[in-house]
Amino acid sequence: MGLRNPGRVNIVITNRVLRYCFHKDESLESLVSHGEIELPVDTIKDGRIGNKPVLLKLLRNLVHEQKWKRKKLYFCVPDDTVVIRKIKVPSALSFNEVKGYVTTHLGNRFHLPFRNPAMDIELLKAGKEEQTILMFAYPKEKLDEFVSVFTEAGMKAVVADLTSLSVYRYYYLQEENKDNDNDNDVLLIHWNVDSLVLTTFSNHQAVFTRSRKLVLESGITNELITEITRIIDFYQFNITNGASTITRLLISGDAANLQEIKTKIQNSVTIPIDLIDELHKTYDIAAKYTDVLGLAMKHNV
């Protein structure tokens, strides 16, 4: 007799809203429910929990209404303080030893803008003397705060992801984009109502990210467009030392004027631009849900 699949909760939290979906498995076709809840002001502030009682009550209500008690949870927290960095470590180190080596050399050989990071490591390239790895670092204290409140609400938080990685996963794993391997260097422009996150991808791996807070209803300023073109140049001349250039832009987010944003950017660059709204074809669900849908596509652990 087969075991019952308990399904999985997926939650993306921003400073303004909580988006969720529940899937029977990691396929889009297994979607059971989805929704968005506007958070009371300052429930989440600058990427941190600002009012735990309010957030906990909201989550407990969701768990009760959706019958999520003891369900596995994958979640994304705001990308505003994540650091993505390409670094070199000795080739003699095994994969399991790399994290300890990086931790030991923090503040000396490797520098982060915060202490006590939660880290994830990916191997990029192995050489005879050195291997190149990709380090994802996030303030552990901030991450632990979210894990704690999810646990108190009755869910089992097992995986934390980045919103930018989830959006790109959704984009790349769509069938019509899988064969588009000529575009190895992509800039994801994730434009929300109150934040802008720019993340570059090379061969489907994130290699750099930068975020900035936006004033509500600030509009599409020339400064923001200039920031995007600056990142395109920075990627070519600083990150890849002239070896590569951005070949495609991907625009996503929950801002209401993404089409206008696309038009403004097109007036400043000659790079092809994809708008997630134009690619998103999933079950009549609004395109703003691509972040949490991409999270749902992450493999089970």
From TrEMBL:
What top-level branch of life does the organism fall under?
Answer: Bacteria
Q: Which Gene3D superfamilies match?
A: 3.30.1490.300, 3.30.420.40
InterPro entries in the record: FtsA/MreB (IPR050696), PilM (IPR005883)
Q: What is this protein called?
A: Pilus assembly protein PilM
Q: Which organism is it from?
A: Virgibacillus phasianinus
Q: Upper taxonomic classification of the species?
A: Bacteria, Bacillati, Bacillota, Bacilli, Bacillales
